[in-house]
Amino acid sequence: MSDLRRYIKARKQRDREFAEGFESGYAQLKLGILLRQAREASGLTQEQLARRMRTKKSAISRIENHAENIGLATLSKYASALGKQVHISLG
Question: By the 8 A CB rule, do 45 and 52 touch?
Answer without folding.
Answer: no
